[in-house]
Amino acid sequence: MRDQDGCLILSGMPGAGKSTVAPLVAARYPRAAHISGDVLSYMVVQGRVGFNGRPAEEARRQLRLCVRNMCDLAANFADNGVFPVVEYTIDNRRMLDAMVEMLRPRPVMFVALFPPLEVCRRRNATRDPGHRVDFDFAPHYRAMREDLGGVGWWLDTAALTPEETADLIRARAHEEALL
């Protein structure tokens, strides 16, 4: 496998650095695309229900749609020689398994940016108010670790700059994160 083959899924809690690091990772490849799940989900301009919104069934339906769209777009890019960096909070095995299934037979890499919870909270608190997450994501943090721990490559980014994190992912994801 060449180091431009496949699809990279970059996950983590709010404040882990996903939206900062993903475009930096993509910029380190000769041909790459940054696919933001948040951007795709906000394409629903009327009737959008966030992942933890109400009604719950509509939130789940829109989450499944977002996941499908991310994977379809990533597959289209990968099949045309553009390395996709998919950025979204994947906090459970069922969602990751569904994504891997949609992306196969392409190689899939999973990188979880996972600084300590307090680092995520501090970073989230210093964000622009329009980008700040306004719910307690501690249960999601614990659930992600329990459900996905040991899957792919987990990076504690607390002491790394975004550029250092992107360099590390570019250099090692094809070995460390391959599913």
Plain-language structure description:
- With 179 residues, the chain is an alpha/beta fold.
- It has a single domain, classed as Rossmann fold.
- The protein is built from 7 helices and 5 strands, in the order E-H-E-H-H-E-H-E-H-H-E-H.
- The protein has helices at residues 18-26, 37-41, 56-79, 93-103, 117-125, 138-148, 162-176; strands at 7-12, 32-36, 83-87, 108-113, 153-155.
- It has a 5-stranded parallel β-sheet, with helices on both faces.
- Helix 1 packs across helix 7 and helix 3 runs parallel beside helix 4 (93-103).
- The chain starts with 6 loop residues before the first strand and ends with a helix.
- The model has no long low-confidence stretch (mean pLDDT 92).
- Pfam families: AAA_33.
- InterPro entries: P-loop_NTPase.
- This is Phosphotransferase (Aminonucleoside antibiotic resistance).
